[in-house]
Design brief:
single chain; 295 residues; alpha/beta; Spore Coat Polysaccharide Biosynthesis Protein SpsA, Chain A; 2 domains; ten-stranded mixed β-sheet; two-stranded antiparallel sheet; 11 helices
């Protein structure tokens, strides 16, 4: 790729042991690492093993804020946002750039994500609605996971085997056109983690840009390693913030009540750590109405 085509942006927070493999996979491509206060040796690893990588630091204000800092610094036609627990397979970055160049009205292109055992990790998503959240949190999608009716949040029935225009994509690996980002703005930093990608791509669609998935490029993603599953409440908050912003507070309040019912039900059905997680989520949802929760 010509110099200046793309800059890789990796946001880190205690990213070992995956960070080294992540950065090795994009060797030779301009890369910015934004660290959010790591204490596990991630910063020392970057400085000692990847001297060509630009390392910057800021307080941990969330994934969107970290990526925003990297994008403001970068000087390239495209940004490649890559999770610290993900790594590129072969020439995936060049393939994504080629795809985006062939589709000039496209703001975002996402690759096929793979689990570390090379099985498919579903990355295509539908925008949240109350019904779509119900199919997930009330286990309705388990009845027919390959249908769009009962699995619309994860676009059931799509095998991730062909290029397809989509609502939005999981943010583990995204190629973003700078021109489009300049037009609609960067991530909304009110989303700490979870929901910021859906919000951003919704705004791209509203402005007339397109979002594509392509299986021609592949990225391996560990999944959950960057937060260890400890941010369940942030996931719930992301759903509510998206709905309040794009569907109105009344719709977000309906979602809050649905999610509260679902998590109370789950806390009766499960034991151990999962029960504790669901109870924590239910306590959060029961503590106030949507307007107060999102203040």
């Amino acid at each position: 790729m010509p110099e200046g085509d793309v800059c890789v942006i990796v946001v880190t927070f205690n990213a070992l042991p995956w960070l080294e493999r992540c950065l090795e996979s994009v060797a030779g491509v301009e890369t910015i690492v934004v660290d959010h206060g790591s204490t596990d040796g991630s910063v020392e690893l970057v400085r000692s093993c990847f001297p060509g990588v630009r390392l910057v630091a800021q307080a941990n204000r969330g994934m969107g804020a970290g990526n925003n800092l990297g994008m403001r610094i970068a000087d390239s036609r495209y940004f490649f946002l890559l999770n610290s627990d993900a790594w590129v397979v072969g020439d995936a970055v060049a393939r994504l750039v080629a795809f985006a160049d062939a589709h000039p009205d496209t703001a975002v292109v996402g690759p096929r994500l793979l689990n570390p055992d090379r099985t498919l990790q579903r990355s295509v998503r539908g925008f949240p609605t109350v019904w779509r959240l119900a199919t997930e949190y009330l286990f309705l999608r388990k009845l027919a996971p390959r249908t769009r009716l009962l699995n619309p949040l994860y676009v059931g029935g799509f095998a991730h085997d062909e290029a397809r225009e989509v609502d939005w994509l999981s943010g583990a690996a995204l190629l973003v056109r700078r021109e489009a980002a300049d037009a609609v703005g960067l991530f909304d930093e009110a989303f700490f983690m979870f929901g910021e990608e859906a919000d951003w791509m919704y705004r791209f669609h509203e402005a007339g840009w397109r979002v594509w998935f392509t299986p021609e490029a592949e990225v391996v993603h560990v999944g959950g390693a960057s937060h260890g599953g400890r941010l369940y409440v942030e996931n719930l908050r992301g759903h509510l913030r998206f709905l309040a912003k794009h569907r109105g507070e009344r719709e977000a309040e309906r979602a809050r009540r649905l999610l509260l019912f679902a998590l109370r039900l789950r806390s009766l059905l499960f034991r151990g750590e999962r029960r504790a997680t669901y109870r924590e989520g239910a306590r959060y949802l029961a503590s106030a109405d949507v307007r107060s929760l999102l203040r």
